């Protein structure tokens, strides 16, 4: 028995089913509560748009729920681990398994296998569902919850510099000369860097060269005069190629698409550390679910009647949440160059893998 990593087939299936049921229950509760709180804070903005109603609220929920599932699935695995192991301990099932000759690792093996499958499913879910939902939701937010844009290659909150002048767009879609912008602002500055003219426009399209604005409101700072010209061409130094590389949202791009985008940035001589860190984290992030049974394993062992079961559960929860704190901090450090991208994405995972193994071996093996 000690030479087999997994216990018997019956026991493996029993523990796996127990674990999956609790993961599903915890995920449902977390997503339901968080979605209700999110709707309370966002429903006012959505319903403020004329014509929006219950259908738009359901659309928002449908776009937001995949993001919540992706973000809180590892937390659900952690909480499910603690509940499962504490229940097994209280019912003396862990004692029975150890009396049958199972090691601590063998007791955890079905949970680790289940968590590994959850990690794989999370990666596929992120790439196929979450990225698309994120892209659509950000595009919808950029047009203030008006009509949902149906263009491809959507980016939001674009900032461009044209020889000191500034062009910003809340929403940008398309590629090459077919690029379309919405909610555009153009700030013309003098040689001293002072803004002398501000132009706000509803739309902008490529004029070859420059960008033709439509729905314009122009304000001249020098004489405080506002006018509304029919059209205006600005940013003649900004080419479609430059705008294509203006911004990449790694949360809205699938893994392989992001790989191509990073390569384009590198060919253009742009800084890619932040994108590289997010690229690596697309792999290491879902794997955090695999760590949770190991970090919460401390709750499985020790006599329930000793009065230390609650303390063990708290320690397991503290280890799990410490991982998420360190992971977020390392990713933030990698985003502005404090850590190399690979280290920022993978160091927390391997650090807590070693911590979990050390705690398990020193206390139980």
UniProtKB/TrEMBL annotation:
Keywords: Cell membrane, Membrane, Transmembrane, Transmembrane helix
Cellular-component GO terms for this entry: ATP-binding cassette (ABC) transporter complex
Transmembrane segments: 12-37, 72-88, 108-125, 283-303, 309-326, 338-361
Gene Ontology biological-process annotations: lipopolysaccharide transport; transmembrane transport
Protein localization: Cell membrane
Bilayer topology: Multi-pass membrane protein
Keyword Cell membrane: yes
NCBIfam families referenced in this protein's UniProt entry, alphabetically: LptG_lptG (TIGR04408)
Annotated protein name in UniProt: LPS export ABC transporter permease LptG
Lineage: Bacteria, Pseudomonadati, Pseudomonadota, Alphaproteobacteria, Sphingomonadales
Originating gene: lptG
